[in-house]
Amino acid sequence: MGTQVELATSRLFDKDALAATNIKLYPGTNRDTGAEQFAEQLNKAISQIEAGDFDVVDLEECDK
Amino acid sequence: MPGYKELYEYCQTLEPKISRNDILNKAIELTGVGTIKCTKTALDITKMRGFFLSVGNTQHSLVRVFGTNLIVLARGMNECWDRFITVKEVMHLFDRHNETTGTAEAFDRLLSDFELLKPAQGPSPQYSSELRSIWMALGCLCPEKLRLEFVDQFNKGHIDHYGIALKLKIPQQHVKYLLNDSFKPIIDTILVMP
User: Fold this and answer.
1) How far is CA B176 from its chain centroid?
2) A38 neighbourhood in chain B, CB within 8 Å
3) To bridge B41 with a disulfide, which of A48, B50, B53, B175 should be the other Cys (CB 3.0-4.6 Å)?
4) Given A24, A40, A59, which is nearest B51 (Cβ)?
């Protein structure tokens, strides 16, 4: 298996994967977070979402 | 910046706490994207608080659930962070084509810029859009008339950053940017960007 960045790149940009047209990030509290750690978070998030482990945010109900 | 200018002007008519849904629906109307959904999953917030993803493969299972545009938030953040990150990521609907992260090379460059900007090269268009989106989000969440009132009250010692954050329901650490003299010039520059 390659690096986390390589894995994220394949999952995001391969035509038979997400074929992402845009990805943008909001970093966390640690300013020392590196590329591999960012990519690891993306990979975990994508895996969780694909496995059904997510909570839909109903924006209509929020902020009322 | 076409689209954002109209969104900003629309937000000037709103009262805090400004609804994420109002901002999102107006952004959808102005950009013509079909939908943008929001979800939460487990992220280590010391490393990443959230992200925006636009998917090109409409056959992907994620698209069947969420559509092609998705904002992902870390579970466990407070309402202020949820709100601000949602709105910041919505701002990426206004990214110009050269600012999108749609290739491996652009992604690599974005991650590299987050790690450490290289002085000789300057920020990538992708990274620049990340920085700009913070200001754009603040511009949407605090009407200028109210911002000037906050500046006045703050300078008189009648309110502090925490009090302003509570009224706007945004993270306290971003209030200092609203109160800074450079805020309006930065927004004005963004508004006239092509």
Assistant:
1) 16
2) 47-48, 111, 114
3) A48
4) A24
